[in-house]
Design brief:
By secondary structure, the protein is mainly alpha-helical. It is elongated. It starts with a strand and ends in a 5-residue tail after the last helix. Helix 4 crosses helix 5 and helix 8 packs across helix 9. It is built from nine helices and two strands; from the N terminus they run ββααααααααα.
Length: 177
């Protein structure tokens, strides 16, 4: 499956393995800020602000290592859902028992995504079938049927996302650091 590496602007075949990609990326002992920005789509101000606010270790010799890059990518990926301190708390939770926590977390996450169904929510919930069943009972057809399917899908996915976010926040609060 070809897609964007989560939290990046990098398009790649996900089955090729993210660790190999990261190994090749960091073969030259780090990335300069302009490379990080190109790979993530972030602004220099954003990354520098994360360093200033201590969400991210400062680069060494103006180069970011793999753990720093993975931290940036994880924050970029989850920033719409969680506050940055909550994201770094998850990374710190793993760091308490494993070295290279940001890289470990990111590579495992990408591996999980690679194995998960492409549309896990709809696969697990049979969302489209449920919508079709409800609309069939109401004898809705034609253009109205198509429009209702779209609107109900949007509403249900929004509702599910709120529930899933709430569950994720509850799980986050169980992390002892």
């Amino acid at each position: 499956m070809i897609g964007y590496l989560p939290g990046t602007t990098v398009e790649m075949n996900m089955e090729n393995g993210v660790q190999d990609f990261l190994n090749s990326l960091f073969a030259a002992n780090g990335l300069v800020l302009s490379q990080v920005l190109q790979l993530t789509g972030l602004s220099a101000h954003t990354v520098q602000n994360w360093v200033k606010r201590k969400f991210l270790r400062p680069p060494i010799g103006k180069k970011y290592d793999c753990d720093q890059f993975c931290t940036i990518v994880i924050i970029n990926m989850l920033n719409d859902i969680f506050q940055i301190d909550q994201i770094t708390r998850m990374i710190d939770y793993i760091a308490a028992s494993a070295s290279g926590a940001p890289t470990l977390v990111y590579t495992c996450f990408v591996d999980v995504l690679t194995l998960a169904p492409g549309d896990a929510v709809r696969t697990a919930t049979k969302l489209d079938a449920i919508i079709d069943k409800v609309l069939a009972k109401r004898c809705i057809s034609g253009e109205t049927l198509k429009r209702m399917q779209k609107v109900l899908r949007i509403m249900l996915l929004s509702h599910i996302s709120v529930q899933v976010r709430s569950e994720a926040l509850l799980e986050l609060n169980t992390l002892d650091i």
